[in-house]
């Protein structure tokens, strides 16, 4: 699996493994953000076809990836998510390296995944609040992200490029 991750990094994420300022590479942040999106998608123990389709399009748009690269990122993020004992590793990267605006856009993206199947489970709300708290987004920002998504007033990229 490590070879698969390395191959993906070098082929799609333009090394070096850290940015010029010593922070994590964009690939690490993409995997972390994608893993959080997958956590939300799986919160109700059912990753519906509507959620899956929304997730693929979201990853392509937000990260500017071709379809195959987006699919591979989702697979890698899912492997990382399943292999993780908690969300801290993912949320800590986002908390440390995303601006408030980027976190707000990520929250909008997560709401989009939650609402993609037309159902809203209490567990999804719980996971949304938990992730938002762990990345340092205040509750008001979470509500704002949902309102912006529902009104169609979003459109920034998760990475804030």
Spell out the key features of this protein.
TerB-like, mainly alpha, disordered C terminus, globular, 161 residues
Radius of gyration based on Cα positions = 15 Å
Q: List unreliable stretches of 5+ residues.
A: 14-19, 156-161
Number of helices: 8
- Strand tally: 0
SSE string, helix = H, strand = E?
A: HHHHHHHH
Q: Please, how many domains?
A: 1
Estimated helix fraction: 55-70%
What's the assembly state of these chains?
A: single chain
Percent range for β-strand residues:
under 5%
Tell me the name of the CATH homologous superfamily. TerB-like
CATH class: Mainly Alpha
Q: What is the CATH topology classification name?
A: TerB-like
Largest sheet geometry: none
Q: What is the correct CATH architecture?
A: Orthogonal Bundle
Structural class: mainly alpha
Spatial separation of the terminal alpha carbons: 29 Å
For the residues shown, what is the average pLDDT? 82
Query: Looking at the structure, what is the overall shape?
Result: globular
Walk me through the structure:
With 161 residues, the protein is mostly helical. It has eight helices and no strands. It has one domain: TerB-like (Orthogonal Bundle). Helix 1 packs antiparallel against helix 4, helix 2 packs antiparallel against helix 3 and helix 2 packs parallel to helix 6. The protein is globular, with a radius of gyration of 15 Å.
Spell out the blueprint of helices and strands:
Layout: H1 2-12, H2 26-41, H3 49-63, H4 67-83, H5 88-97, H6 100-115, H7 122-135, H8 139-151
